């Protein structure tokens, strides 16, 4: 947590202000958006210069903070800590870049520009922008409810739909984010305002540790593995814990209709899924397959969180395909957090962050979720005080 606070304090001044002032100088009073050539020739070189200076000046203190953190956790739980001794500068660079992206830093291509996406990278395109897959494999990315038009056949696209080579995709949604992502690499022709997000890197280890204090997020045999995609089974288990119904699930002795659940020593998966299915909390991918290892989506998990707060699709409170935006409307997350979350793939890091945020949100009946869970005995006031004592860095 100290590391994150230091990164935010040092880079906010050294990088963001410099980049913002440079970008502002590239346009005119009638068209304040910096041109692509201006960004390429002026913004990027200056940004890299400031970034190098920030990394060099920050390294000693970051190393000291890292060593202090290691001493604090030594002997407590090293299984949940992933340390890359050579990575402070890489983490600084990633945090600086993502902070720019969070603040809406966009490139502008007045004419088609070729963008090469490496494995794990994601392209985001603003309203009116156009994408065309030239080579490789990519899928539409962003929110499922975002409007992307396939100009070739006039159909609407949606997140996770595979892109066809040579087809023009135009983003027509002014409120939701859309783009493309690739698992193996791709070349995309882009026109309009866009940004390229690097491969995801954990940013919310502090939230994961706070949730662990409450017994909500317990990690795996390899630690929190925050950089991995969250699975459907993991999302369901987290949901049951946030409902305060894990004990009831583990005591479940009824039937489970799915035959593809993993085998754990305690036999928990069929209990979790069978209980949730019997309560109407979840459905399978078919009548016999739950798809436990399939990736969870932001829409799926935000639907779970809204249900935990007492909201219902049947009551017309929200629609699952629009759950992230509904979470903003219902006061669970802010607009800024929404944009930061849905731009990236839904990984365990993001699941930890939104799970922490929902604890301070009000339920439909006006009760704060954390208070409801303490009253239900899911965790104690002392545990909650310990979890909040160090502070969790919030986006925005």
Oligomer: single chain
Figure out the total of helices. 13
Q: Structural class given helices, strands, pairing?
A: alpha+beta
The number of distinct β-strands equals 9
Distance between the termini: 16 Å
Calculate the mean pLDDT score and round it: 82
What characterizes the major β-sheet?
A: 9 strands, antiparallel
When the domains are counted, the total is 3
Query: Would you identify the regions where 5 or more consecutive residues have pLDDT less than 50?
Result: 1-32, 72-85
What overall geometry do the principal axes of the alpha carbons give?
globular
Helix amount: 40-55%
Work out the strand percent.
Answer: 5-15%
Order of helices and strands: HHHEEEEEEEEEHHHHHHHHHH
Comma- or semicolon-separated keywords:
single chain, 396 residues, alpha+beta, Jelly Rolls, 3 domains, nine-stranded antiparallel sheet, 9 strands, 13% strand
């Amino acid at each position: 947590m100290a590391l994150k606070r230091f990164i935010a304090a040092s880079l906010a001044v050294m990088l963001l202000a410099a980049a913002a002032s440079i970008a502002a100088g590239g346009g005119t009073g009638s068209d304040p958006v910096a041109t692509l050539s201006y960004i390429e020739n002026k913004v990027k070189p200056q940004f890299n210069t400031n970034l190098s200076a920030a990394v060099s000046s920050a390294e000693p203190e970051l190393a000291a903070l890292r060593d202090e953190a290691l001493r604090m956790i030594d002997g407590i739980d090293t299984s949940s800590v992933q340390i890359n001794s050579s990575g402070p500068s890489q983490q600084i660079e990633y945090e600086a870049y993502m902070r720019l992206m969070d603040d809406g830093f966009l490139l502008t291509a007045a004419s088609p520009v070729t963008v090469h996406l490496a494995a794990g990278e994601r392209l985001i395109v603003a309203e009116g922008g156009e994408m065309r897959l030239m080579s490789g494999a990519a899928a539409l990315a962003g929110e499922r409810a975002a409007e992307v038009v396939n100009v070739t056949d006039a159909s609407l696209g949606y997140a996770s739909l595979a892109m066809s080579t040579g087809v023009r995709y135009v983003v027509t949604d002014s409120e939701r984010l859309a783009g493309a992502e690739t698992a193996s690499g791709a070349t995309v022709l882009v026109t309009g305002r866009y940004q390229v997000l690097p491969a995801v890197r954990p940013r919310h280890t502090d939230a994961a540790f706070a949730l662990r204090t409450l017994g909500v997020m317990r990690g795996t045999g390899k630690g929190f593995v925050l950089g991995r995609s969250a699975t459907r089974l993991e999302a369901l288990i987290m949901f049951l814990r946030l409902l305060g119904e894990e004990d009831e699930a583990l005591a479940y002795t009824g039937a489970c209709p799915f035959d593809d659940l993993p085998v754990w020593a305690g036999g928990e998966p069929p209990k979790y899924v069978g209980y949730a299915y019997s309560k109407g909390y979840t459905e399978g991918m078919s009548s016999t397959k739950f798809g436990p290892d399939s990736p969870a989506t932001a829409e799926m998990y935000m639907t779970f969180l809204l249900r935990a707060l007492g909201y219902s699709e049947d009551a017309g409170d929200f629609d699952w395909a629009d759950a992230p935006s509904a979470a903003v409307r219902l006061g669970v997350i802010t607009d800024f957090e929404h944009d930061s979350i849905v731009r990236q793939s839904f990984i365990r890091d993001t699941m930890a962050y939104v799970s922490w945020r929902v604890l301070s949100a009000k339920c439909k009946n006006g009760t704060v979720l954390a208070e409801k869970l303490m009253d239900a005995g899911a965790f104690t006031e002392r545990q909650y005080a310990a979890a909040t004592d160090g502070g969790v860095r919030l986006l925005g």
